[in-house]
Amino acid sequence: MFLEYTFNPPPPPQQHHSLSQAREEERRENYAQLVMTDGHDLVPNPEPVDCRICYVDLQPGEGVLLRECLHCFCR
Ligand SMILES: [Zn+2]
Predict the structure, then answer these.
(1) Which partner for 51 in 8, 22, 66, 74 could form a disulfide, CB atoms 3.0-4.6 Å apart?
(2) pTM, whole model, 2 decimals?
(3) Where do the record's region annotations for Disordered lie (predicted)?
(4) How far apart are CA 28 and CA 50, in angstroms?
């Protein structure tokens, strides 16, 4: 099965009275994060990885993740 890693951010959260305030905020935060991530080609690696180039163990945030191919490596 072909896995499509690119995705479109959901439409901005709509005010909806059936959603609790907490859920509403969570949706807004997720959306803001998606928008932020979408503006960069490189994002910090979300989980520990081995650098493919120099085989160093990287803690989350120490390396970068290529959004195009999801390869991780040190900065
Ligand atoms: Zn490296």
Answers:
(1) 74
(2) 0.40
(3) 1-25
(4) 33
Question: How far, in Å, from the CA of 69 to the mean position of ligand 1?
Answer: 16
Task: Compute, in angstroms, the gap from residue 17 CA to the centroid of ligand 1.
Answer: 49
CA of 47 to the centre of ligand 1 (A): 15
Per the structure, the complete domain to which residue 62 belongs is given by 41-75
Asked if residue 4 is part of any domain, the answer here is: no
What's residue 11's pLDDT? 75
Instruction: Give me ligand 1 centre to Cα 22, in Å.
Output: 40
How many Å separate Cα 52 from the centre of its chain?
20
**Amino acid, single-letter form, for residue 59:** Q
What is the distance in A from the centroid of ligand 1 to the CA of 7? Answer: 28
Question: How far is residue 27's CA from residue 43's CA, in Å, rounded to a whole number?
Answer: 21
pLDDT in tens, 7-58: 677 777 766 566 688 999 998 888 777 666 665 577 889 889 888 889 889 9
Residue 56 forms part of a structural domain:
yes
